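Hi V.,

Quick status before I head out on leave. The structure for the redesign project is tokenized and pasted below; the design run finished overnight.
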């Protein structure tokens, strides 16, 4: 029987929601791994809406659950309904929506607050010793909620111009967590906390390398489950 995995989205689109390629990659690797997946998102308004063609703010409001339903092909539930007891693991793709809608990292950095349902979901899986997978910027959720944990967002220096957001690693360290430097096609496993992370689009890399890195994260999550 396949592992039961919850996938948590933050909207639809890299600049104000979930990163579509990351969400899709996670779903493909979960499918290949024989997992049974259910998708969730918080039923809240987005912090902002971005015109992805122009890269500028749009004067409109959107709902995170409604927008996430685009990625889920309509098969999605309110995050408030997620019960950790019904799943073997949880995975959070990245995208600015994580830093805007699931928490306030985009505005407040290490002083951010985490959405109550996101926080309770993370706490529930952690308390049950069930694995948590995070990619791109979403490892900051674990860094904020679980002081002392180990995560990666890639490198802590902008190596060859490929890691423009390397300062995120320093902010994670300031939260009392350990940042582990990894390449884009790798993931890090915090065995003690059962947290698996990979940098994905935190690195400027070809899409297939990001896809492969997310694959290692998914594989490790399924192993731990």
């Amino acid at each position: 029987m396949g592992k039961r995995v919850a996938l948590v989205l933050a909207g639809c689109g890299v600049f104000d929601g979930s990163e579509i390629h990351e969400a899709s990659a996670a779903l493909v690797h979960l499918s290949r791994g024989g997992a049974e997946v259910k998708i969730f998102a918080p039923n809240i308004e987005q912090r902002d809406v971005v015109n992805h063609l122009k890269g500028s703010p749009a004067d409109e409001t959107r709902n995170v659950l409604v927008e996430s339903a685009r990625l889920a092909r309509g098969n999605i539930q309110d995050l408030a309904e997620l019960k950790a007891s019904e799943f073997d693991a949880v995975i959070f793709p990245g995208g600015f929506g994580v830093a805007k809608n699931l928490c306030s990292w985009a505005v407040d950095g290490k002083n951010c607050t985490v959405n109550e349902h996101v926080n309770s979901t993370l706490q529930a899986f952690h308390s049950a010793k069930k694995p948590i997978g995070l990619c791109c910027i979403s490892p900051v959720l674990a860094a904020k909620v679980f002081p002392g944990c180990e995560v990666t967002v890639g490198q802590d220096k902008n190596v060859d111009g490929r890691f423009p957001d390397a300062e995120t690693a320093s902010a994670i360290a300031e939260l009392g967590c350990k940042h582990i430097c990894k390449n884009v096609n790798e993931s890090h496993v915090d065995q003690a906390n059962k947290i698996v992370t990979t940098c994905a689009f935190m690195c400027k890399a070809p899409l297939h390398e990001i896809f492969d890195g997310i694959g290692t994260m998914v594989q490790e999550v399924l192993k731990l489950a």
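Above is the designed sequence. The helical segments are 20-32, 64-71, 96-102, 105-108, 116-127, 139-145, 167-174, 207-224.

G. will cover questions while I'm gone.

Best,
W.
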